[in-house]
Every structure is written in C-alpha cells, then in structure tokens.
Design brief:
five-stranded antiparallel β-sheet, alpha+beta, 22% strand, 8 helices, homotetramer
Chain lengths: 357, 357, 357, 357
C-alpha cells in the first residue's frame, strides 16, 4: 500500500512538488529486455507540456526526462526505472498570497486540514505538474503493452460544447491545440475558450480515451475489475469528477435488449454487433476496444475574486494571479491515455501471472 | 495485492459462488473492542435480500449471516472476522442452457476467455449474489466509522425516469420497494417497471449515495485519493458503467466561478456556500457530505432471445430462463452504501496511521 | 496489506480461533484448471494433525477440510478457494485460569497489550491450531508448483540432541513420530522426550526444509528476495526464533573460497560443486535445492509453575493444565513445508508476470 | 506489491545501480510536521560510507544525500520524500572481465538467469551500494519513532572470532573500525582481517541489533508478525544467510522453564526477569529491548581464482579485481540498524491505524 504509488505489478511511484527542484517517478516491475531510451518517453511528455498554446498555462517547462536507472545498453534490466524531470520555471513569488488563504475548489484547504502543513508554491504536491510523471510512466507502459495495443484520447466537450461524434477524425486530434477530433468543434472551442480566458475564468471538459487491440481476459473479479481500476485511475487525475465506461450513464436509460452487445461468429472468431459495454464485461476485457470517458471540472484557480477564508480563520476574497490553464481538461488528454496504459500494462502482468500462456 | 480483496487496512476478502454451498468474507484489520454480533449485520443484509417484491429476483434466500471468528464475548478482538452466509435456494438446473452459450452483456464470455473454465450455475462468481458479502462487510465498516457518520443511498433514476430532486424525502426511501426518495416518481416507476418485467426485459438505473459526518482529511494524494477509491469501489459493483462525485459530468459544462464552493467563517468554523465538489477536494474529504452517484446498466439476463454464440463457436440465440432482477439497480442501493462505508473505514484507518490525533 | 494474509499473487488469508466454531482460509490467485478436491489436501493435514502420538497434544481433531468455493467439476476456476475446518474438540474450561493471568513466553500478554482484549480459549488466534490452515494452503501451493518441485522437511534437532547428518534417510522421516531422518537419533529422542513430557516440561527443536526442482530465477531484488520471503514465512510460524538459508550462521565463520559454490559445465548445463548458498544467490533461485532451517523454542505452556502476573496486575504463579505439545517443533515440520510451498508458488506467479515464457 | 519497495505504511522504494548516475529512494507515508533536513540523514550515511579504513572497499564515495521533495520550510509535509545520492567514483572498466563470466557465490548468475540481461558494472543493482538508500530511509524512520526509541548495532563475530559478551561496551562500537563492542576482540580482528585482506580472501561475520524503548503492542498476528518482518528485512540485506530473534537457535536446546521470561510487578509495571524472547511474543512487542542477530557470509568477490563458467557456457576461472570489502559484514551494521528502524516505523503506523490512542 502506498499513497503515491499506482499499480501492483507494473507499479509507478511518483514524487515531487510543483516548485521543488525536480519531479520524478520510479517504475518497478517493468519486464526486462525492452528497448528504452529517453527518446521513447520525451514525445509523450511534449504533448502534455504546458505553454504550447494560449489555451494552456504559460509556465515554460521543457519537461526533459532523464533515465537514472533500470536501463543498460539500451534495454530494460528488470530493475526499477527511475525517471526525473527538472523544474526550471518556478516563480514562487506568484503564490505568496495563496499561502495565507484557500482557493475555493482547490486542494489548498484539504491538504492543510489533513497534514496541518502544506507547500503552497504552485499548489505543491497537488499541482497538475505531477501528471508529467504519469505521462512518462505511461510511455513505458505502452512499450510493455507492445505495438498491438493502441491507446488514443480526444477532448469531446469543452464547457457546454460537445463534438459531433459523426465528424470524428483522429487526424484532427493532432492538428489543433485541443486534441479535438471534430474540426468544426475545434473552431467553436477556439472562440469560446478565448472568451473564457480573457474574462479570467475557466471551464470544464470531457475527455474520451480508447484502447484498441487489448487482448481479451485482462482484469479480474471481483475487486480487481478492469473497469474499476480504470475508474480509479481516471478519477485520480486532478480535477476529474466523473468516469464512464462504454455507454456509461446513458446505459441507465436503456432496456436490456438495447444495451447488450449481440455476438456472432465471423471468420472463426467471436464478433460483436455493438460495443455498449466499452470492451469490458464482468470486469474483464472482451477484446473489443476499451472506451472510457471522464469529466474534468473547471480549473479552480481563476482571476475572478471569490469569497473564501484565511489560514487564521477570517473571511477574505481570493483571486489567483499565477499562471494557469483556462481549461485543464485539454492537457488531461495525454494524462488519461497514460493512466489507461498503466492500468492495462499492470493487468497484462497480473493476467499472465495467473494464466500463463 | 489480491483479486478478491478490497481495502488496505480495513480489508475485506470475499469468496463464494452463486450456487456453491455458501458465500462469505473475511474482514481483516477491524479495530478491537467494537461491539459486534450478527444482529448488527443482519438488518443490512435484509435490505438487500432478494425476493422481497416482484421487482427483484424471486430467488428466496434468507441470507442469514454467521460470525465464525474475530469476536469474543460480544466484542471484536482485532483478529479476522469471518462471516458466512449459506446458499439455500440454488436451482442449478435453471442454468443448464446457459452453460453452453454466452449471454450477451454478461460475464459468461469473459470468465471463460480469461480462465478457460467457468462455473455457469447462476453466474458462478460473477453473480450479484457476491454483493451480500459486501453488505455484510459494510455493516461492520459502519461500526468502525461510528455513529457520527451516516451513509444513505437512494435510487434517483430508473430507465429514462429521474426523480424530482426537489421532492427528495429520505422517509420515502424506506417506504417503497425502489429506495426512491420521491413518492411520485415511485408511483411512475411501479407502472413502468411492471411493464418491463412482464415483457421479459430489464432496465438500467442511477443510484446516489450520501455520507454525512465524514471527518475532514480522509483520503490521500496522489494515488489513494478518496474519490478515486470511491470510483473504483462503485465501478466494481456488478453492472455499473459510470461513477460521479459531486456535480460529476455536469461540472464539465460549468465555469470556474459556478463550480467552486465559496467558503466563509460561520460559528468559528469554515462553512461552504455549496457542495459542487461532493465533499472532496484534491482527493481529500472537506467535511461536507460526500455525494457519489453510479449508473447501473440493465440486467443482461433477459427473457428476450438475443443473437449469441456457443462455447463450441457456433451462432445461436440465447434467452435466459432463470430468476433475475428486472432492474438490478434497485438492490445496488444497499451495496453502494456498503462500498462507500468500506472505503471510508479504510481511509479512516489510513489517515490516523499517518496523522495520529 | 493485511495482518492475516500471506503472499501477493498466490495469496492466503486465514481466520479462526482455537476454540471458535471453525478455522479456515481463502486462497486467492490460484491458477485455473488445476485438479483439486479435498483428497488433495487431507493427507497433508493428517500429517500435522494432533493426537497421533504421545509426543503431541492429546487434543483430538479430525481436521477434516471442506472446499466451499473456487472449484467446479473438480478443477480450480481461478476464483477464491475457501477452505474450512470445523473445530470439534474444544474444551474451553481447561483455560479458565489462563484467562486471568499471562503464561510466561506466551502471546497471552502481548495480544492484550495490543488489543486491550483477547480470546483466552486455547490461545485464541495465537494458537498453533491456525497452522492447519497453512498446511491446507500449502497443499494447494504444491499443485501450483507441479510435480517437478518436491518439498520435504525433517526434524534435525530436539533439545540438545542433533541428528547425524551422515545418517540422513528420507524413508525414516515417515517411519517415526518425530519426522526424524536418522533412525538412531529417533531412538534417543524417544527416551529424551518421554522424560521431558513426564516432567511437565517442554523442549525446543530445529527443522530443516528442502525444496528440490525449483526453477532458477524465482525471487526478486531487492525487497522481494526469495530468501527474505522464506525467512519471513518461517519466522512467522508459532514459536520460531531463528531462520537460516544454506550454511546459515556457519557461513559467518567461513572464508570466501570455502563459502562460494564453484561452477562448471556438465552435460551442457551449469553445475555446482557445493550448495553453501542453499539454492539462492542475490535473492534469486539458482536451480539448486533450496535449503532452509528454523529453530523452534520450547512450548511456553508447561505444567511447571512459573512466576507471572495477573490481568489486574498482581504477582502470581502460572502452571498450564490444558493439552499441549511437549515439543511443538515436531508438528512444525509439515507447517514449514507448507510455508515454503506457499512462498515458492507466489514467486512462481510473480516471476512469470514479469518474465513471460 | 513491489520488488523494490519495503514496508506498507512507512514505505520505502529504492532505485539505482552501482555505476549508474545516482541511487535514491522515495519514502512514502512519512507523517507530516517532522523536522527534516539533509543534516538529519548524512551522519548515518557517513557511518556506512566506504573507504574509511583499510577494512572496507577503497571506493571513494562521499554519499552526499539531497532531499528533492516532501519537505517544506524544514518539515515533512506528508508527501513523498525523494532522496538522491550521486555516484561519483565509478570505475566500470574494473568490471569488464566480470561481464562475461559469473563470480561463484554472487548474484551475477541469478540476475541473468532471471532477466536474461544484467548490468555487470559493479554488480549493478545487486551491489551493496543499494544499502546506502536503506540507511538514508532508516534515518527518517528514526525520526518517526522519536527519541524514545534507540536502535544500535554491533559486530559480534568476524570469521571464527566472537566477542566476549561480558566485555560489551557501547562506547567501543564508535571507537574502532569494526563497530566492535569488545575492545580486546577488536584488536584480534584487526590482525586477523589484515591477513584475510592481504591474502585476497574475505570472511563472514555476525551482526547484532538492539532496539530499546520500543512500545509494547507493535506487530500483528499472523502474517505481519514483528519478528517475521524483522527476519525478512534482515535476510534481505546483501549476503545475509541467517537471522535470529532473542535466543535464536540456542532456544532449540532449552527446556520450557529455561526459555520463558518470568514476569513480576515492579513499580506498578510488568517487569521481566530475562529476555530470551528478544522483546517479541506472538509476533508482538513486549516492551523489552528487541534483539536481533544476522549472519553475513564472506564477500563473494575475491582475488583468489575460482572455477566458474562463462556467459556462453564454457568452463573458466574467475578472480575479481575490482574494489571490495574483505568483510562486508562490517558495513552491514548501520544497514541492519536502518532496516530495523524501518520495520519499527512501519509497524508503529500500522498499530495506531487499528488501535488509536
């Protein structure tokens, strides 16, 4: 058990604060003899990196990863992989005012209620900066899963504006600053988010992650269900308030016939007529694409002054002046992909422990 | 790590199949000197018990719990508490046909893909019967939490029919067979579900669980967030496809000012103007009520014939003849309460390990 | 994490007190499609069973095991295996006096210091009766390891009387009531232990367990070393005070040349000239036999009166009248075998998770 | 579960290889608001540091520790503490020959059997260099335990030469290069070990660790026994082959009356007439000093040529030319202290989770 570790056999332990000297993670349990260098990890970090458009925080972090252990002559050795990313653009003075009061909707309050102390610089440990480590670990998880498994994410809603799912085009995801699969929606979002940003406010979003090529049989009854572990992984991303698998909440309104994915034989293999289940039945993967969605609340750090209280228990108003994402959901896309990759890599190892080939 | 255990310090391991001789659980880590007898557990099991109305399966199980260890002279001793419930109304012949093919939307397929074998009698281990053990464990978890914490659940939607939240009345929850807090909605549901049942179909539902009196500080960054653990716990209940905390998916459409829960001092304590967060910030409880919701898909075992495949890989049609719940979401209410109780008890112990009073 | 579970992937959770209605265990993570019935477990329990000679406690327990879950049509299904053994010969009145004072050298005191309460009947949870569950789990672990792995134990010392290792004969182990591999020593022990027994005293012993056929590569650096896990497993058996692997403490007196096991090629495979290492280097199995030894202290419950204190903190004298083993080390032989089997099964699964064939 | 983590609530994850850029550890679960700076850790590292006498390896490593996270304004924040030590004196060329063959008695062979790859530079992950991280973590564990708990170790035997226990003087431990509590024995050892060193050989040793002031009640039945966890912790130190608690193997030769620690009341508290148990009964601390001993085998890397095999499976002779300790047991003293500190800190947290004050 650990508060800052994720996974069981492919196990990631992260450390570091927003404005400390560095952040990093230790990956334990990675199979040996996998080709690995910084070049396998850096591109994924670059996708999550802040400061790449006006729609994300202007903090400039190169997020350059260094491998400190676990790799010899270009391959993993089966020993722990230590990854480290230096923090280079800390501006702790931005946060001086935050140290004495609590931003509404932020972890400022709860860290202090829990521990009686907190590192207020940039949100300390609660900063979304920690998610860089998740993305780095996810890059390694992808290598464990192998090329047969493809994990991609997209933003499907910003504020009240959802995409047209019929217009879904994966190419678009890589062509706009929103990871938006619908070119038209991306245009709408650009205007909308610009207004949000200029007004000093923020807005929520919905992210969808799809994993194709996942072998059937991953996951386990009863308390290691694949969907339960995915739900925990995604809900554990900063600012996430809801998670769905497959049809999710929409399934509540369906009748049994409408919700079940009928099967038939096709080319000697079991084929499905639909994927309401999102690739998971009874907590175990079916071989269909795994489809997960999560809702991200609006960034709590906004310029708009809000009623709050001080550390010494007086009423106050709080307005955040530091650098922040107007829609933290955007950069949650690569984070969500990484978390799904980590869950799947862990379950791949768990599965073959009990069920050798 | 374990596939069939839940929690870390308040740890529950369940075992048993739908049509085996018994089901049960072992609760490890329960604090000593807590008064405990079967009478503390049985009422909660009775709420979940099948066969109490025409809207749940007609299987008749008394679900009588026996404490086999961990209690001496009426109090817990700190050693493992073994709880056991005999299965008395197995009718395995009902399931003979199911053994040779896979119900669409059911775990039949995936258990077999994973393990190469399955116990088809009543769904074996994947049966919702296992949730009786969760309810039993939840009863003990409530005692660990103490009387200051109140955990209650309600059904807030059946099929497309949601309650009127303005009409919420906790008394109603105990007065109708749906755990419905809105008397008027309960009437609508009765007619609606009767139709579903008679047509041999099934329907989904949404359950809401609220925990009041939870002390602030429970939960932990980063991978032991209270909301992440709740999400995993609820998603791990049979047939659940979505989980929300507080505003959940609705938060995605909100702006920062609308979503944040402003604070002020009241009577020397921090008070909140709203609870969009559902009682959790940064993965740690705020002291406000914890609000979680989950979506239950329609029961996959229905009378309506559906296209499927056989174990020996031929096309077929499957119609389930055994006893089933037309809306498995109803009995998920006490199960959801129990899971939330277990998560909170576990986190209470985790919290005080690191943060002694 | 759990106080009453052992192992990670092949995970055993035990429960039950000496004088409760039953004891039992849940085995989680067992691979599917292994043939298993009570007949595979009972013979191992019979070896540990009390009352088979005058040298073990006279409590008469058939120790009849029942499989309550996890097996369908004679094979494991991959779901938890619940095993249960009824207690039939409890005589709780024997222990009335013990309830009010603490036996020197016994867990009476520490359970109460820890929990503020204890079940004094037959030692409650601290009774060696719990080890029946370990033996039952070990029987399943042997099936996981397969017929290529042979795990056998023997008693090599009782009190000051060690065996002549040159006279080691495995046949003898099954021919005397001491699991003694040296026929001559067995004769000496019989007289010696008869004297101990008649004088109302007890005596310690040393047990040696050898596992042959263990594949190389099991175990893991740094904190999951095979020898570390074996040491923990054996030290966790009741009354054990020391554990050795290979040469153990004798290695401290050796020079590097004398201790190292030289290697050479033989028939295309690596062969060793000796086995000082006891089959483990760097925490990982070499393929040589694994050799472990452990020291069992004399039973603390003896007829001889000893100075002690009462629960209400007065000086007293304690003499135990209940039924006890004059040398609890004898019955520790099958228990030690079982623990080694469980460690190896767990590490087999762990190994193949990270290192698929 | 993790191969490279230790502990459950006070949890240490280490990483790094002997000749990589750095080694380090992440400590998770440390209580908040404990004063901590590098100055609290460095002195313990300095005690373990190599190159301080001719009796340890001549590798020159300053072992300077840096705290990278988890501390703010001089106190722990409850978030993970990342510690890092740069490697500065790697001479990888020393190990070129070792890369192609296996040192007898060394983990060279088994790492490669397990993973199919190894980092041969300085033993890679299997190097005793990793133990610096344990010592660093142990320094933090001591702060968690507080000043009431004192953990000290000593070397009590080198090769065949044991100390005179009657001459035990803790002052001496800090006055000679062997951590030897017997001044006379230290003199004998100096000559003896000089001969061993000059002949290019090595020798084993026995270390004893004593923890005073440990509160009663730490540890837990059945599989989290304090002595079992200590045994696992100490056996997991490089080159350890045996572990004892209290009288250890000597207890096997004793009768019940001789082994039990009689109790009486003294000054209103329970007092013991002896401490054969080494401070632990039934897996739970009694409040008496905890006494543990472990045997360290002779260093396997010696100048003396030994028969071995090559990676490509030919007979060869191996003689190690790199820098090594003639008696690795010496530097195991601070490592043993650290491991005991970590076990106790973990159990302190575990205890208060279940048993709040």
């Amino acid at each position: 058990m650990s508060h800052n570790s994720f996974g069981h056999l492919f196990r990631v332990t992260t450390w570091g604060e927003s404005h400390g000297p560095a952040i990093g993670c230790v990956i334990d349990g990675c199979p040996p003899r996998i080709k690995l260098s910084e070049a396998d990890i850096q591109p994924w970090l670059d996708r999550r990196r802040p400061g790449q458009s006006k729609f994300t925080t202007q903090r400039q972090e190169p997020d350059e990863v260094a491998i400190l252990s676990g790799v010899f002559e270009g391959v993993t050795t089966g020993t722990p992989i230590s990854l480290q990313i230096r923090n280079v653009d800390q501006r702790s003075k931005d946060y001086a005012s935050v140290a004495q009061s609590y931003r509404p909707g932020h972890a400022d309050l709860t860290y202090e209620l829990k521990y009686g102390v907190r590192d207020p610089r940039g949100g300390g440990r609660s900063s979304a900066r920690e998610t860089a480590c998740r993305v780095a670990a996810g890059a390694v998880a992808r290598l464990v899963l192998g090329q047969g498994v493809r994990i991609r994410g997209a933003l499907v809603q910003i504020g009240p504006h959802a995409i047209d799912r019929g217009a879904w085009d994966w190419e678009q995801v890589y062509a706009n600053p929103f990871f938006c699969p619908d070119a038209k929606a991306a245009g709408v979002w650009e205007n909308y988010l610009d207004g949000i940003r200029k007004s000093g406010s923020s807005v929520g979003a919905v992210v969808e992650i799809i994993a194709e090529g996942v072998p059937p049989g991953l996951g386990a009854p009863i308390y290691a269900k694949l969907d339960a572990d995915i739900a925990g992984a995604l809900m554990g991303i900063n600012a996430v308030k809801g998670v769905e698998i497959g049809d999710g909440f929409a399934a509540a309104a369906l009748r049994g016939e409408a919700n079940a994915d009928a099967m038939h034989m096709a080319g000697g293999r079991i084929a499905f007529g639909s994927n309401h289940a999102g690739g998971i039945l009874g907590g175990i993967s079916t071989g269909q694409p795994i489809v997960a969605r999560f809702a991200v609340k609006p960034t709590s750090s906004i310029l708009t002054p809000q009623p709050s209280v001080t550390r010494d228990r007086h009423d106050t108003e709080v307005a955040t002046r530091g650098r922040h994402d107007p829609c933290v959901g955007i950069r949650a896309v690569p984070v969500g992909e990484a978390m799904l990759a980590c869950v799947l890599a862990d379950h791949l190892l768990r599965h073959r422990a009990q069920n050798p080939a």
